[in-house]
Amino acid sequence: MTRVGAAPTIGVLALQGDVREHLAALRSLGADPISVRRPAELAACDGLVVPGGESTTMIKLATIFDLLEPLREAVRGGLPAFGTCAGMIMLADRIEDGTVGQETIGGLHITVRRNAFGRQVDSFEEDLHVDGLADPVRAVFIRAPWVEAVDDDVEVLARVEAGPAAGRIVAVRQGPLMATSFHPEVGSDDRVHGMFVDLVRSS
Amino acid sequence: MAEHTPETPIEHGTSRVKRGMAEMLKGGVIMDVVTADQAKIAEDAGAVAVMALERVPADIRAQGGVSRMSDPDMIDGIIEAVSIPVMAKARIGHFAEAQVLQSLGVDYIDESEVLTPADYTHHIDKWAFTVPFVCGATNLGEALRRITEGAGMIRSKGEAGTGDVSNAVTHMRTIRGELNRLHGMAEDELYLAAKELQAPYELVKEVAAAGKLPVVLFTAGGIATPADAAMMMQLGAEGVFVGSGIFKSGNPAQRAEAIVKATTFFDDPDVVAKVSRGLGEAMVGLNVDEIPQPHRLSERGW
């Protein structure tokens, strides 16, 4: 539980990926960010960010270093969590186009399609309207997943607006869990992280 | 959600998209593979990407001759076999090889000194491509020149195919030392610094203010053990390329996984010690000093 007024401790899963960018965004918002590679570090967190990176690498390392079960327990226990790109895959209950038997932390009642937009030459950026933010964000999609299906309790926050994938779901929230297909940590706009810090503060 | 019209259309191949791709590889290991089977082993071991090539540097060195871009069928086979990003090498200056690799759908091109250079004057104009490029550098000036040409990621050169990590160490220490020196300079000293680095003043000014490169910096060249990877990460590398070190060793799957673990826990000697046990034989090494000068790969490129 967060003490009223105190800076919440928000962990960034630091097994692999763009950890530093998330730490910087969280710090600029007045949170107290820490890197999480061990169960003891996870236990100190009021919220957790699962960064962009390679989901197959992250899940493998989480399993080997006995972090996967503590992560699952924390999310089941109501720890606020926010996943970007690979982090969205890690928080999804179901994956399409994963590696054989690819596991996840789970928690979000969604089906995510991995590498849904194609290869790196298909990676792109666009102005994206996100529910809860007045102005669009410049969303950067890098070999990104999209959300193929959501259960009734999942709130859709954004859909792709142009191009062949227009209409695809790329940002969701379900109680204390949030996920985006794009990378709000790439660039200097910290409003999406702000939404998550608010979520942690109100949990 | 409210109805609206997008202000700007979607854009591909921007600097943010190219450099961002490399950001996602940070803290990870990129492994050289020559077959689809090796690519699977690398993916299963936790590699963040594979580098598809026809011969690993140790074999290029042993067999000699001109070394070129890999066969498209071989690259296709590797793209088919794995779901992680696939990189491939083009010769320095060989923009047509790079065009072919882009059309095959590789995720990153390494304009690499490991292959025989195609142009001894010009590197590839990397801004002309949608696919991002990684380039080798031995010092800060070289790194900044590659970034000026559009590279989205930099790696140390090291001396590929040797299992001798000493050159990679020299390159990382040199780049980091020069970054620190630049960061501490007064603004009116940066004009001369730009001249000496043979890099554009605007970029030098940006890097001096930030104290770091505007792109991700990996290490490469001679990394063969978990401790090698841990040392390079402690020296400031943001991730590791392993070339011949894995598939020229006694037990590739186990060594690959050990290097992945050591890269994540590079600052925890207990983990590095644990993963270093029972790996069998490392690749047979070759001391850089014993290689005659014309055969040193890191001296290719400028």
Structural account:
The complex is a heterodimer of chains A (203) and B (302). By secondary structure, chain A is an alpha/beta fold. Chain A has a seven-stranded mixed beta sheet with strand order 2-1-3-4-12-11-10. In chain A, strands 5-6-9 form a three-stranded mixed beta sheet. In chain A, strand 7 and strand 8 form a beta hairpin. Chain A contains six helices and twelve strands. The longest helix of chain A is centred in the last third of the chain and has 12 residues, at 191-202. Chain B contains 13 helices and nine strands. In chain B, helix 2 (36-45) runs parallel beside helix 4 (72-81) and helix 7 (166-183) packs across helix 9 (201-210). The interface between A and B is large, with 50 and 42 residues. Strand 7 (124-128) of chain A pairs antiparallel with strand 1 (11-12) of chain B, so a sheet runs across the interface.
Summarize, please.
The complex is a heterodimer of chains A (203) and B (302). Chain A is built from six helices and twelve strands. With 203 residues, chain A is an alpha/beta fold.
**Number of helical regions of chain A:** 6
Please give the order of strands in the largest beta sheet of chain B.
8-7-6-5-4-3-2-9
The gyration radius over C-alpha positions of chain A equals 15 Å
Structural class of chain B: alpha/beta
Biggest interface goes to: A-B, 50 and 42 residues
Pathway (chain B): Cofactor biosynthesis; pyridoxal 5'-phosphate biosynthesis
GO molecular function, one term (chain B): lyase activity
Active site (chain B): 89 (schiff-base intermediate with d-ribose 5-phosphate)
Catalytic activity (chain B): aldehydo-D-ribose 5-phosphate + D-glyceraldehyde 3-phosphate + L-glutamine = pyridoxal 5'-phosphate + L-glutamate + phosphate + 3 H2O + H(+)
